[in-house]
Amino acid sequence: MSQVTMTVNGKTASGDVEGRTLLSQFLRENLKLTGTHVGCDTSQCGACVVHVDGKAVKSCTMLAAEADGATVDTIEGQAEADGSLNTIQQAFQDHHGLQCGFCTPGMVMSTAALLKDNPKPTEAEIRDYLEGNICRCTGYHNIVKSIMAASGQDVGSIAAE
């Protein structure tokens, strides 16, 4: 066992972990931040995306010990200071970018990373960026609309798949 300390959603968090403990496990089990979903444990679905030092990371592929000293942001830290939904979350709600909700935390976190690097992505750029995130419900059409809306762009031109 070793101790890890990181800043999670703006607060210092510490805990004892085994060397094989994944960041997703640490967040969910030690810190009780269950918004980070684990869908595949193989880095294919993207439900577990968090930001580590500002970079989108699939937390099921990173050891907790690797995040020692890092700044980690999860879906729980995305709301506005007053608890209201942020722009991305609101766009997902307004444009029906979620159904069952299982992929939504990873989609929102991936979207935040995309819009940070590319504030006005094209539809093709959004679809390309989301290749690492699987949604089994929506067919991505409304997710793409949500991301376009969150970036302040017109959603009327989004083609149905």
Commentary on this structure:
It comes from Shimia thalassica. This is Carbon monoxide dehydrogenase small chain. Keywords: 2Fe-2S, Iron, Iron-sulfur, Metal-binding, Oxidoreductase. Pfam families: Fer2, Fer2_2. Its EC number is 1.2.99.2. The chain is of the alpha+beta class. It is 29% helix and 16% strand. It has helices spanning 23-30, 87-94, 104-117, 123-129, 141-150, and strands at 2-8, 11-17, 49-52, 55-58, 71-73. It folds into two domains: 2-77, Roll (Ubiquitin-like (UB roll)), CATH 3.10.20.30; 87-150, DNA polymerase, domain 1 (Orthogonal Bundle). The mean pLDDT is 94. The protein is elongated and about 55 Å long. Helix 2 crosses helix 5. A hairpin with a 2-residue loop joins strand 1 (2-8) and strand 2. It has a five-stranded mixed sheet, sandwiched between helices.
